[in-house]
Amino acid sequence: MVEIKKGEIYEIEITGLNHEGQGVGKIEGFVVFVDNALPGELVEVEIEKITRSYAVGSLKRIAKASLQRIEPFCPVFERCGGCSIQHMSYEEQLRFKTDIVIQNIRRIAKLEDITVHPTIGMKNAFNYRNKAQFPVGMSGKEPVIGFYAMRTHNIIDSPVCGIQDAMSNKVREIVRMYIKEYGISVYEEQKHKGLLRHVMTRTGFKTKEVMVVLVINGRDIPHRKELIKILTSEIPEVKSIMLNINTQKSNIILGSESICIFGSSTITDYIGKFRFEISPLSFFQVNPVQTEVLYGKALEYSRLTGNETVFDLYCGIGTISLFLSQKAKKVYGVEVVSEAVRDARRNAAMNGVDNVEFVEGEAEKVIPDMYRYGIKADVVVVDPPRKGCDEALLDTLVSMRPERIVYVSCKPSTLARDLRYLADRGYMPVEVQPVDMFPWTMHTESVARIERVKG
Ligand code: SAH
């Protein structure tokens, strides 16, 4: 085996991407990760770091470029920690995400007879996010409002972000002017001093309503009136301006208290026909266009006829529950965060939906209890966080014998693990549909239909 040296240049072939979007290649069998390199490329890299199991190299020259390589649309792509695969064509990203799902199912679930459909992408993969959180800092005398750089807390500024809603870029420019004009102090993380920490925007894609949240280390801002005036005259869509109080020395972005200084303390948006009220703290899917596609698939895969009792586990603010309620007799949503449960109840009431009920608690504890009380589901939908489902939950579901399970997943490897577990207990995955919720990043979302094996 060759000895790999720091600072040396090597030519390697890139054969895959890791979960951060780095190209993966090998030097005599030893794994090397390279930012900004694509599968199929022959590249020269300078080794920057060596650990026991892998090395990290920086891209020096592309000797043979991939046909799927494109020019990143953002000038700060290589430094910003937001996107990771802007140098890959969108069609290739979709193919790639489908392949990630297929590979995980083969390797981890070791299942062959599943149809993995091609990833459903966006018609327009730009400006898809409805929520932006910009950290604020200073670079010399100039305010910087942007994004944390890859793997650090340095702030990268750029006038526009191509994946955020366009309004957020406008808000950012106004706040930048406000800081300069009135000498507003900005927060310094190290010293825990200064006022303005983050600028957050939330936009209703269907209603066009915009909320601006200034996260501050204090309880008020100077020249409030002037800021409100310029924000609302430049952007008439601004329906809510909030101060969020965060005086903690921590890197959690939002504090628990918000004060409304203009308009309403919530904005409204719709997913499908359902209306939601969004406050600074409430959870709401960040890509509303694809959320509708994903939930539509979950509803289709649940194959409801109107007579079923359905569980929506890990239900958040009850978005999927409301979708399912259209075709079910009764839906029970289960969620561990109490604010989310409160929002879920309010959302159901606001939409006049009376066949859903929300239970607060951990799915793996609540469901065994409900089952003991004789409450059973005909169809179960789960949408767990990245770590997937708890075995105690899956065991109870298996004993309950629902017709089918619909699994919405944000992480292919834990999906594959849970599919294997269920397959060994009489529930066979039949088809999986990946839906691209996060273009230009490696995030891979998918929904699986799992049927009880008859007999
Ligand atoms: N289905 C929702 C939210 C999915 S995110 C939507 O589409 O909007 C996953 C949710 O699971 C989060 O709201 C999180 O708070 C919740 N959660 C995490 N662990 C849980 C557990 N053990 N039991 C119930 N809910 C849990």
Summarize the structure.
By secondary structure, the chain is an alpha/beta fold. The chain has helices at 90-109, 166-182, 224-234, 288-302, 319-325, 338-350, 363-372, 391-400, 412-423; strands spanning 9-17, 23-27, 30-34, 42-50, 54-64, 115-116, 131-139, 142-148, 155-157, 196-203, 210-216, 238-245, 257-263, 267-271, 274-278, 309-313, 330-335, 356-360, 379-382, 404-409, 427-435, 445-452.
What's the SSE blueprint?
Blueprint (H helix, E strand, L loop, with lengths): L8 E9 L5 E5 L2 E5 L7 E9 L3 E11 L25 H20 L5 E2 L14 E9 L2 E7 L6 E3 L8 H17 L13 E8 L6 E7 L7 H11 L3 E8 L11 E7 L3 E5 L2 E5 L9 H15 L6 E5 L5 H7 L4 E6 L2 H13 L5 E5 L2 H10 L6 E4 L8 H10 L3 E6 L2 H12 L3 E9 L9 E8 L3
Parallel strand pairs: 3-5, 6-21, 11-12, 16-17, 16-19, 17-18, 19-20
Antiparallel strand pairs: 1-2, 1-4, 2-3, 4-5, 7-8, 7-10, 8-9, 10-11, 12-13, 14-15, 20-22, 21-22
Helix pairs in contact: 1-9, 2-3, 4-5, 7-8
The structure holds S-adenosyl-L-homocysteine.
The site of S-adenosyl-L-homocysteine has 16 residues, from helix 5, strand 17 and helix 7.
